[in-house]
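Task card 7
Instruction: Convert sequence to structure tokens.
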Amino acid sequence: MNHKKEKSKVHTWWEILVVSTKLGLTSFGGPIAHLGYFHEEYVRRKKWINEKSYADLVALSQFLPGPASSQVGIGIGVLRGGVLGGVLSFLGFTLPSIFVLILFALFMQTTGVELTGWIHGLKLVAVAIVAHAIIGMAKNLTPDLKRKAIALLALVVTLLWHTLAAQVGIILLAACLGYVMYKHQDNHVKSEMSFPLSRRFGIICLSLFVGLLLLLPLVRELTSIQWIDMFDRFYRSGSMVFGGGHVVLPLLEREFVPTGLVSEEAFLAGYGVTQAVPGPLFTFAAYLGATMNGWLGGLMATVAIFLPAFLLILGAIPFWDQLRRNPKVNGALMGVNAAVVGLLLSAFYQPIWISAVFEPIDFALVAILFSMLVYWKLPPWVIVVTGAICGAIVSAL
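Output:
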């Protein structure tokens, strides 16, 4: 029996790594698009997590600093295979882009190859993927007029005030509205989640997060070791990001360009390539680290910038899993989930739609890709390859 259990665990861990690596190779378009890819793979295809649990996990990630899509992926990995499952989910989703960006930093210091055509095609893929995700999530998360109104409020506010403060504020307001509207309502959608993490483990992770944030600057000042200095800069940047991966770019720019650790030209070149690779935008740190200290610097920078997100999601999950069973907390989450639909709609328009659809041919390609995904049920990687090829062809005409 023990041998069979161990074999089953190994099979589960291997499956997590394979599926997350496939997502790491094909998930283009930024954090909002990543959530769409995750929804398609983990909720619709694999059914590892139900609609409500996925939405709750997304809602939790909105409250925590760090890359939301990576934290959602880690959470699903933990749900499926424990802490090691979370690590494997993270590695699979992240390593492909890390590998490409470190290679670019080492061997291609200038963007000599013209990539505009297929990059544009990948942006169109993101439009189709996110549209599909929004339709599915809206159907399940805004079934009544009250939640539709919350989603509409979130959409209008974040479109008119495109700031981080507006996004955080509308999430908090939606939580309050959900609490007031649904605190006495029983939620009949059962959650099948049971995270194998204890509250003690969560406290350890949260304590480690705070301890590193406070101690690393002191150790850096006392030792003046370059590697500790670099680790502190990336860790601090990863600890202060709310609102998605794009927000980390100005933080990293202030840490490394004015100090002369990375030239402005190298910084911008790496940023351009980061937009072209799949996976989380936080992997830009791998490029910067490799630019400064070779492949080892790239790996250390990656660990440093993702470590806060990892500690926070592992630390928050045990408490969140218990709190969300409370009807009042569940009511607040219902409001937040409705707001997430509005936030997705807002992000669908800006930046996804307005940065991708310029001409009638762009809209036509989006319609084709959307139909391939929704009606013909083709795998996401087929949609990605098709979009890239079509983008390159249209650009060449």
